[in-house]
Amino acid sequence: MPTKDTINFINVIRNNAFKAGTYYGVDYDFKAISTYVESLSEISKQSIFSDKFWNKYPKYVCWRSHDISNIKAHGRGLSLFVKHISYNRRKYPKTYKSILLNSKGVILNNAIDSFSGKDILKLAKRGVSSSDPRVRKSCARILPISMITGLINDSDYSIRKIVATRISPAARPELFINSESYAVKINAIIASSLDRDIIFSMLQESAKNTNKWYVSKEIVALLDKLDDNDLLFAVDMCGKNAVITDYFKDRLS
Q1: What is the pTM of this model?
Q2: CB 96 within 8 A of CB 89
Q3: Position 232 in a domain
Q4: Of 232, 237, 186, which is closest to residue 251 (Cα–Cα)?
Q5: Which range of residues forms the domain containing residue 59?
Q6: How many domains is the chain built from?
Q7: Which of 61, 138, 170, 229 shows the greatest Cβ crowding within 10 Å of its Cβ?
Q8: Domain final position from 110, 127, 154
Q9: Nearest Cα to 169, choosing from 155, 180, 179?
Q10: pLDDT tens-digit profile of 107-163?
């Protein structure tokens, strides 16, 4: 549930929304909304912008189904509100500062898109650990590489893909050896220099999941790093998968 301050904020947005002949079918009086927020106490601003309610708030809704009375129908309004505050930060300095320091979810994501200069990095540094994947995705695109290594195994596939694109597994394979993305992990294995003990340890772990089609490729990539003598010790630990069996026949025949 949103906080009382958040509910009041959304009610002000709804009361200042009006039907318009635009593509989106609705527009907002941002001067009235911004003036209201600027007049609030710092505690109330923080209560609004730091509300976890924004972590799952829709960024947009289909204009055909846009219902001004719906509490979750104002994602576009929030986006335009944050842009208005950014462009007029000298007029609304307290609101700007509160968004910069406290925002979460869709408001934080909008701020990353709308703010400028060093303030974008300040927002992104906070957002990289956000529970909202939309925020983490924005952070993965703009933060320095040294700050996004923690997103390599992010639960969101699109975020993992962005990180793997920015930090090549071939260039830094040690960072991706345990990647949740099978293709990234295999490329990291191929590019890495792994010790014999580590290879056998990874083979034992991978062999537990040979029922998954991509694991056989992972195992083959690991086996490729063993010499023929060590390969003999791996025969009985990799399962009976057809791809793996054929690999052993080719290597040991």
Answers
A1: 0.78
A2: yes
A3: yes
A4: 232
A5: 1-110
A6: 2
A7: 138
A8: 110
A9: 179
A10: 999 999 999 999 999 999 999 999 999 999 999 999 999 999 999 989 999 999 999
